[in-house]
TrEMBL record:
Pfam short name (any one): Bestrophin-like
InterPro entries: DUF4239 (IPR025333)
Keywords from the UniProt entry: Membrane, Transmembrane, Transmembrane helix
Protein name: DUF4239 domain-containing protein
Biological source species: Nocardia ninae NBRC 108245
Length: 257
């Protein structure tokens, strides 16, 4: 079974088990006076506050993680579009620039898909060999010397597209290292603990129904935490940014050729 799938199953069940343990043990430790009280207003207010706090922190974390994911995806799209522009500019260039540039653009894109994506997932960094290919591509474009105005114009277009690709690549390098600040995860786990303790603090008696409901609460909370951790890093973890933009670029190269 896939390790990520195991994690998605184990974490919610572990949190559910922890919630039940806290509920049962808390029921035995809490004073008898907590079980029945005439003034439930303050207790209800605290429980509502805990629920609201957890939802607010979870929502805030999800929004930040999703924004990082969306930005990383946009950077891959921008880079792939720029590479297609370079390939298209080289299509009208004379030999040997035509073949050299298109070959290097294709090789770089293929390395991004096959080499760099796994490295970003495992090492949270870009591949040096892929960077070397990109540098060689830029040097090849800059080395073109021609007195033909049309070739010079195509070279200028290729250089501009390479600059855009380099900027997008730099952004992708930064995205691969992005992560949620530690204090937000501290807040998330703190509110999670408070939420799991809410059943014991509320004075609910331990019955089959209350145990099942508490376990379901733990499953929901655990699943939410797994989803948040999956979104944390755009290029590693359980929800990696798709490489479809580069695969589409490879397909586009074939159409241009």
């Amino acid at each position: 079974m896939d390790s990520e799938l195991v994690q998605q199953l184990v974490v919610p069940l572990a949190v559910a088990t922890l919630a039940v343990i806290v509920f049962v043990v808390g029921n035995r430790l809490r004073p008898t006076s907590w079980r029945e009280t005439e003034d439930e207003g303050s207790g209800t207010l605290v429980l509502d506050l805990i629920n609201t706090l957890f939802m607010a922190v979870a929502a805030f974390v999800v929004v930040i993680c999703w924004q990082q994911y969306d930005n990383a995806h946009n950077h891959t799209v921008a880079e792939s579009k720029a590479l297609v522009d370079v390939y298209w500019a080289a299509h009208s260039m004379p030999e040997p620039a035509h073949e050299q540039i298109q070959r290097l653009v294709h090789a770089y894109t293929e390395q991004v898909v096959t080499v760099e994506w796994p490295e970003m997932d495992n090492e949270e960094r870009l591949s040096q060999s892929t960077q070397d290919t990109f540098d060689k591509l830029r040097d090849t474009v800059l080395a073109i010397q021609s007195e033909d105005a049309s070739v010079t114009e195509l070279q200028a277009k290729a250089v501009a597209a390479l600059d855009a690709a380099a900027q997008a690549r730099h952004d992708r390098a930064m995205d691969s290292k992005l992560g949620m600040p530690g204090f937000l995860y501290t807040a998330l786990w703190f509110t999670t603990i408070l939420l799991l303790c809410s059943a014991a603090l509320s004075g609910v008696e331990v019955t089959k129904r209350s145990v099942v409901m508490t376990a379901l609460l733990g499953v929901v909370v655990g699943a939410a935490i797994v989803a948040i951790y999956g979104l944390d890093r755009p290029f590693s973890g359980g929800n990696i940014v798709s490489k479809d933009a580069f695969e589409l670029a490879l397909s586009r190269y074939q159409d241009i050729t």
